[in-house]
Amino acid sequence: MPATPTPTPYRIALVSFPGIRAFDVSVITEVWGVDRTDRGVPAFDLRRTAAAPAPILLRGGLSLTPDRTLAWLSRADLIVVPGLDDHLTPAPGPVLEALRRAHARATPIAALCGGAFTLAQAGLLDGRRAVTHWNLTDLLRTHHRGVKVVRDALFVHDDNLWTSAGTAAGIDLCLHLVRTAHGAEAAATIARSMVTAPFRTGTQAQFIEHPTPHADRDADTLAEVRAFALTHLAQPHTVAGLAARAGMSPRSFARHFRATTGTAPLRWLITQRIAAAQKLLERTDLPLPEVARRTGFGSEITMRQHFATHLSTSPRDYRLAFHHTPAGPGVDTPGPQP
Questions:
Q1: Rounded distance, CA 312 to CA 318, Å?
Q2: From 34's CA, which of 91, 182, 242, 259 has a CA 20 to 30 Å away?
């Protein structure tokens, strides 16, 4: 019997040039440069591309040695651009031209933090939505007036171009790209090895500088309410019901919840239900109506509507793409951390 052919590794090109941030290089390398195939994560082929083979000096006495030229971008399944130490650093002409050609080929391109400035220099963000660190939004607007700058998102997708907010949001985007291409379980496995959340809810609005408030005496109560909702996803929840559990009025509860998580209670709940449904679809052979019931959607139709809105796919197609060996009908409903 002929051997099963080995799947071609997913190819990621890290675009490097003088001025890129060492932290973002480390994030990209940690997500795609570590072999986790023994834990069920697909094989990745991460390459450090540059216009020339000479080592690139990074801040902090570090250096990066390219192992491919920019020509390798034509082979990449995904291109990732790190942020910049100086956000107005001009990218080399060959880098900008290579990015333009890649976008014309419809290769997905992701920029972390100030990497949005590099995409903007290439003209790729003209007329498109993009995000960067909240402290750089005015700078991006000033120097690239054609960009539709989004102020508070953790990451934004527009026309096969991804941009993310600052620092930790780059991790969020990288894990999201893994989740989109390879499923929630692969992203969760990588997140566990990095000791980080598979995804964060909310927006970067919760991190924008404001006058320091008094300690939020309701934080522990809200954490308990979120934990309760996660362990009882199958139950119907309303803002009024969750507010009563927290001992608050619905209006006060919604205000404190948004201040703590960066998002509204019901939006947060939908995100948790989708994540739980993704895991059941990947890990079990439960019928779709049962998945919908266990995760609180109530009906397969409702679950399908939310998958279409948030994931641009259907539960059935998601299962076909990411289903693993069934764990059996007695599997507990998996859920993210509060």
A1: 10
A2: 91
Token output for 64: 């990066």
Which amino acid, 51?
A
In the block, tokens 């939310």 appear at: 306
Coil/strand/helix, residue 227: helix
Nearest to 123 by CA among 79, 165, 93: 93
Q: What is the pLDDT of residues 173-200, one digit of tens each?
A: 999 999 989 988 898 899 888 877 665 5
Residue 109 in contact with residue 81, Cβ under 8 Å? yes
Query: 78-81 and 68-69: which strand pairing?
Result: unpaired
Pairs from 65-70 (Cβ < 8 Å, separation ≥ 24): 66/16, 68/13, 70/15, 70/94, 70/95, 70/98
**Number of neighbouring beta carbons within 10 Å of residue 247:** 11
Cα separation, 105 vs 76, in Å, equals 11
Work out the burial of residue 215: count CB atoms within 10 Å of its CB; fewer than 13 is exposed, 13-18 middle, 19 or more buried.
exposed
Provide the pLDDT for residue 311: 83
Q: Which residue pairs, CB below 8 angstroms and at least 24 apart, start in 135-144?
A: 135/166, 135/209, 136/87, 136/166, 139/87, 139/88, 140/116, 143/88, 143/117, 144/117, 144/120
Answer for the pair 291, 281: CB distance below 8 angstroms, yes or no.
yes
Q: Which two tokens stand for residue 274?
A: 């989708």
Catalytic residues: 113
Q: How many residues does the chain have?
A: 338
The DSSP-derived string for 116-178 is HHHHHHTTTTTTSEE---GGGHHHHHHH-TTSEE-SS-SEEEETTEEEE-STHHHHHHHHHHH
For residue 335, which of 262, 266, 279 has the smallest C-alpha distance? Answer: 279
Residue by residue, DSSP assigns 26-51 as: HHHHHHHSS--GGGTPPPEEEEEEES
